[in-house]
Structures are given as C-alpha cells and as structure tokens.
Fold this protein.
Amino acid sequence: MACRGCLECLLKLLNFLMTVAGLAMVGYGIYLFVKYKDADDTVMLLSPVGSDQDLIQL
C-alpha cells in the first residue's frame, strides 16, 4: 500500500510540473507575440519612405 501512495504522490508532482511547463509555454508565446507586434510598429516607423519618385517599379 505504501507503494501506491508513493506512486500517487509522484504522479501528482509530475502533473504539477507539466501544468507549470504548459503555462510557461503559453506565457512565452504571449511574450513573443507582444515583441512581434512592437517590432512591427518599430519597423513601420523607421522605414525610409520618400516621395513616389523614389519607388522603382519592375
């Protein structure tokens, strides 16, 4: 019976660690999305755009 209790404890610990890892992945995904949105805004602000004469058509 002691083995069953030990196994339950180990499985609960594993479940907790998997939950924390999943939440960390979701949080990291949100962090990367925010960084992507900020970088997209920065690129648009810093892009050198002149008049229509500066554009080259192929």
